[in-house]
Amino acid sequence: MTKHIARKRFGQNFLTDQQVLTDIISCINPQQDESMVEIGPGLAAMTRLLLDGLQALHVVELDRDLVARLKKSFDPTKLTIHEGDALKFDFVTIPVNPGKKLRIVGNLPYNISSPLLFHLAEYADQVEDQHFMLQKEVVERMVAEPGGKEYGRLSVMLQWRYHMELLFIVPPTAFDPPPRVDSAIVRMIPKKEKLPCKLENLELVVTKSFSQRRKTIRNCVAGLFDEQQLQSVGIDPQLRAEAIPLEQYVALANLLP
């Protein structure tokens, strides 16, 4: 089979380091009776290892050339290929065994990582867990605590839905071609009971709050809340958005109709 040339427009960097692949599979720990989907299988380095532990696997791949390679390389009764954009894919369409939830894994394209994470959050109630390779900087933002520059909209919105953990760092040398940045593996487990709140209210509050990071929260949410309302949920109006924890953003969102 001819060598596949990585395409920049698809954000392709193929993981080739066998030890890193083994470590990722160990973290995922696939079991025979589980329903799993891999986003962006690429040259199938992880796909093959996943199938060693699964009865069957679903994959979502956008690149037609890679889809053709996958079809030639795998038994269709073991690997179900969904050709298309993961940003538009309906993950509910993947069949799940009784009593089980869907598990999602993948080496996510860095150029669409944030919108893809928000798209996947829509399915959190149907998902057991997610294991992703992402740009290290993105994972640090996902798991960030209040008080640092990494903490922002991505942190708050994802932490409302998931328990998250940065598992380990992956260097550029593990890929072909090597990216210019470090990568990281993150585990995301949907919360069984998230803080009660309307999603659209929380999105509005968080987006407004982080729209001008150098300004105080009072100025950022002017028009939505006054100082008295901020103080009513324990927020100092002089604080910046990055200093405010998830619980207080939820409390603010719950002040909206």
Automatic annotation (TrEMBL):
Highest taxon of the lineage: Bacteria
SMART domains: rADc
GO terms, molecular function: 16S rRNA (adenine(1518)-N(6)/adenine(1519)-N(6))-dimethyltransferase activity; RNA binding
Annotated positions binding S-adenosyl-L-methionine: N13, L15, G40, E61, D85, N107
Domain called Ribosomal RNA adenine methylase transferase N-terminal: residue spans: 20-192
Catalytic activity, EC: 2.1.1.182
UniProt entry keywords in alphabetical sequence: Cytoplasm, Methyltransferase, RNA-binding, rRNA processing, S-adenosyl-L-methionine, Transferase
Main location: cytoplasm
Subcellular compartments: Cytoplasm
HAMAP family: 16SrRNA_methyltr_A (MF_00607)
Entries under NCBIfam families matching the protein: ksgA
PANTHER family given in the database record: DIMETHYLADENOSINE TRANSFERASE (PTHR11727), DIMETHYLADENOSINE TRANSFERASE-RELATED (PTHR11727:SF7)
Functional description taken from the UniProt entry: Specifically dimethylates two adjacent adenosines (A1518 and A1519) in the loop of a conserved hairpin near the 3'-end of 16S rRNA in the 30S particle. May play a critical role in biogenesis of 30S subunits.
Name this protein carries in UniProt: Ribosomal RNA small subunit methyltransferase A
Originating species: Undibacterium nitidum
